[in-house]
Amino acid sequence: MEQALASESAAELLGWSPRLSGHTLADGTPVKAYVRFSPEGATISDLGATLSGMGELPVALRAAVLEISGNNDLQLDGEALLAHLPPGGEVGEAVDRLGRACAQISRTASADASPPP
Known about the structure:
The chain contains 3 helices and 5 strands. With 117 residues, it is an alpha+beta fold.
């Protein structure tokens, strides 16, 4: 818990403001999106929280992550999922889209890691 608070504080110091997306990861953790505004618009990111604990992704799972990201107009930058908005773009919609994609990726990875019955 302290590490999460420290990470959030560090993110805020770097200009990111946290927002709850209304979605949850496979383990029930709420997906938190971070928003940073600039003259070029806004960037919305999970700051790598969705993929950080997954280690090296198997080829099939990495392909699924890329597909989910692309279907939601997101980019993958290392472990971070990003949405870029032009000035005046709808931040709430992008936060929802990011949260939905993070939840879907988490559930896909969780199903992929589950042993067959």
